[in-house]
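Readers outside the structure-tokenisation community will struggle with the description of the input data as it stands. Showing the layout once, in full, would remove most of the difficulty. For illustration, here is how one protein appears when written out as sequence plus structure tokens:
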Amino acid sequence: MFFRRQSNQVSPLQQAIEQGHLPTCNGVSLTVDELAFYQTHGKRWQPPAKSLWSQLNGAHLSPRKGRGMTFSEVRQYQAGDDVRQIDWRVTARTGKVHTKLFSEERERPVVLFLDLTPSLFSGTKLLLKSVQLCHLASLLCWVAVANKDRVGAVIRTQNRLIELRPSASKGAVYQLLNAIVSAHNHQLEPNTSMSAEQHLTFAQQKPSEVKTQAFDALSNLCRKGSEVVLISDFSTATTQDFDTVKRLSQHNRVRAIQIYDPLEIAECNGKGLQRVQGKADEMTLNMSSDRTRSAIKQAYLNHHSRLQYELASFGIHLSQISSGAPLLQQILERQS
């Protein structure tokens, strides 16, 4: 749902495009050129100077840790070495303090889980949540390739599951972006007939089968030590989903990004009675009522708190991105 604006006003979307915060887009459907816009920003957030994740997490965290570092050698301790890396066994054996050295693990597979189910196809201010999700996915792809990592994806729609194995080539990234655009736009036109080639690419399945198989497909695609990024609104996350994510986190570094719309936290320009689409039915909300706005915001906060708690128990950090502001602008604001 989109609220109407005065005809003589410049729309927030057009303003963001003119300021260079967004590619040329309509906020609803996607094009490959629109997603390719983020290629120029791929080298902008390379660790350790400007880690994209440190911006999303709101803190300057180590860009490479855990399975991202591999043991290199042991040498005698030098002034300035991290005391936490002292090798006490070698120190005891030789009688001299020795330090472990580590090197960055290169070409780490990055696997994106992209949720393009119906709850993401809503928006009240700037973009559909699904469009913002795809913009973020594109940026992550280009950041991964610039960092010489392989990138792949599992794309979940209402009745399709698309798997793309990790690759570091620029051509593979464009193949992934094409798959994202096709899957996204097909959801906007559910009655559009598909070509034979598309039928081969997108295996038709029942929505219930797609939901139960999505995280299993993600597990099969990820080898140990992968970087897994879950991007969704997590509105339909189940206990079974969390169990699969828990297993994934035992052998991979898993991150989660929640996409939300300003309406979900009761931030919107609409006043009076507004018709919105819920999970199952269309409903009318009185957006002039403080009680209504408070109830909407509290429902979202309860859902977010539960999600944050579940993921934190697995050591997974949850970030948030709004569909109501340009992606680059949100990231840069967190940097300042």
